[in-house]
Amino acid sequence: MNEPNFQLKGSAVTAIVLELYQYDTQAFRDALQEKVSQAPALFTASPIVVQLDKLESTLDPSLLATLLQDCQNCGLQPMALRLNDEQAEQLTELPLPRLPALNSRSRAVEPEPSKAASEVVVKTVVEEKIIERASKIVTRPVRSGQQVYAEGTDLIILAPVSEGAEILADGSIHVYGPLRGRALAGVKGNTQARVFCQSLEAELISIAGNFKLSDALRAERWKQAAQISYQDDQLIVMPL
């Protein structure tokens, strides 16, 4: 029997979502450039889903093309659009694949009120799925370029996590060693998830799509044992 030429497999991928509420070309461009400049290593060349189903105004094909071009000019790589049914009818020829609007079982991060003409909110995709499983335990170092994901459970790592590595869990994350890469807990919306580490040196900490970058983390227990939780709409860093 001949060996198959390919295999189709399911995979868990962390995607950045650009969720748009209002759209003014110049205001959007300025806000996006500012957001990307805060963490170029995180956003540059990152695939994103452009979510338009909460947009208050109509977006015609020419404006959509401008929006996507602005994303590319900032180094982002749009890979799909999230539209509601009405928008899909208006935009008959889509430049990217369409994802359905989030349903009632999905958890959304509510935006804070803003007077800006255009507000850009960048978050990870949050979809509710509750599965109880035994914790995933990793005994070897997680090196740069590697990704470890604990689906439906907590992630326990008994070794260092290097810069450039990414660890994800639907539950909490425990690192018994230095945490230098990116740690994303509660990736499917669990705001009760936490991140624990023996030495906080992370590039990014995220809980349920809410994140802090290394610049902010350096002011709070940097290179010390720490736990990070989500409280009052923000990430809180505390002693471990």
TrEMBL record:
<keyword id="KW-0132">Cell division</keyword>
<dbReference type="InterPro" id="IPR005526">
    <property type="entry name" value="Septum_form_inhib_MinC_C"/>
</dbReference>
<dbReference type="InterPro" id="IPR016098">
    <property type="entry name" value="CAP/MinC_C"/>
</dbReference>
<dbReference type="InterPro" id="IPR036145">
    <property type="entry name" value="MinC_C_sf"/>
</dbReference>
<dbReference type="GO" id="GO:0000902">
    <property type="term" value="P:cell morphogenesis"/>
</dbReference>
<keyword id="KW-0131">Cell cycle</keyword>
<comment type="function">
    <text>Cell division inhibitor that blocks the formation of polar Z ring septums. Rapidly oscillates between the poles of the cell to destabilize FtsZ filaments that have formed before they mature into polar Z rings. Prevents FtsZ polymerization.</text>
</comment>
<dbReference type="GO" id="GO:0000917">
    <property type="term" value="P:division septum assembly"/>
</dbReference>
<dbReference type="GO" id="GO:1901891">
    <property type="term" value="P:regulation of cell septum assembly"/>
</dbReference>
<feature type="domain" description="Septum formation inhibitor MinC N-terminal">
    <location>
        <begin position="6"/>
        <end position="78"/>
    </location>
</feature>
<dbReference type="InterPro" id="IPR013033">
    <property type="entry name" value="MinC"/>
</dbReference>
<dbReference type="Pfam" id="PF05209">
    <property type="entry name" value="MinC_N"/>
</dbReference>
<keyword id="KW-0717">Septation</keyword>
<protein>
    <recommendedName>
        <fullName>Probable septum site-determining protein MinC</fullName>
    </recommendedName>
</protein>
<dbReference type="InterPro" id="IPR007874">
    <property type="entry name" value="MinC_N"/>
</dbReference>
<comment type="similarity">
    <text>Belongs to the MinC family.</text>
</comment>
<feature type="domain" description="Septum formation inhibitor MinC C-terminal">
    <location>
        <begin position="137"/>
        <end position="237"/>
    </location>
</feature>
<dbReference type="Pfam" id="PF03775">
    <property type="entry name" value="MinC_C"/>
</dbReference>
<dbReference type="GO" id="GO:0051302">
    <property type="term" value="P:regulation of cell division"/>
</dbReference>
<comment type="subunit">
    <text>Interacts with MinD and FtsZ.</text>
</comment>
